Amino acid sequence: MDLIDRYLGAVKRELPEGQREDVAAELGDVLLSQREEREAELGRALTREETEAMLVGFGHPLVVAGRYRKVQHLIGPEMFPFWWFALKLTFATVGGVYLVLVILRILATEDVARGLSRVLPSVTHGALFTFGVVTLVCFLLERSGLDLSKRWRPRDLPPSGSATRSRFDLSTDIAMGVVFILWWTGAIEFSAILRHDGYPVVGMAQVWRDLHAPILAYAVASLAVSLVEFVRPAWVTPNRLLSVGRHLTAAAILVVLLRSGPWATVSAGAESARLLTSVELAIQIGLSAGLAASLWGAGQGLWRLARGARA
Q: Hey, how many other C-beta atoms are within 10 angstroms of the C-beta on 273?
């Protein structure tokens, strides 16, 4: 039952809230019937490996959940759940990057209309490009005959009822982490979107350069933690320990940053002093909110570890 419970839990996480319990109950009955029929044929209980083979044959949780969606276009029904998952992930990543750019652009120009007019065309092109690339890749994978629904193992699913992050949340964290590391190391930049003649440009103060290496090390370690949780969701306790360590490390870095202002510079301009004050206040609020979120995440992880130990 452990593998079946994990399987049903994985399917439920991919369904709308209102459908989860009904669909899980229906699938549970079907799976139990299949197992009983197979056990009757063999005259014994199924082994763990045989139960896994039965679940793999039934279908990947993403594919099974996708069968209950009302609309499936562009991509075949077996590939559609993977296409939809990848599309949500890439849009969330691109959207997060451009949201930061919009905020920085507005701060630099102090003009919402000008800030949006500079960034929105890039957002449109980025969204269209993202949609096209994801759809083309999934189309080629489907035509190649690659069956992604067979490349998984039920034993790697997290235990049923465990408070684990969804694969979408983890994938978003991983994608955003990669983008941040590439930007932090200078592999990619967004200066063309941020700069505009006649307006002061916001820059990073010395404190960020002083902490460049620790922040990069944290970003790489945080990415590794998310990758481990994505690849091995069944490692509930180790993943929680790593998550607590990540949150505490982030809190320590944020405390150092909060004590080490100023955090920004502004190029010469008539409104540069007022703009610098606004930017500094925004950064202070953001760092404080990040510190609170990190401490909350660490406390939540420790509480879950203690509860699991008692259980």
A: 10
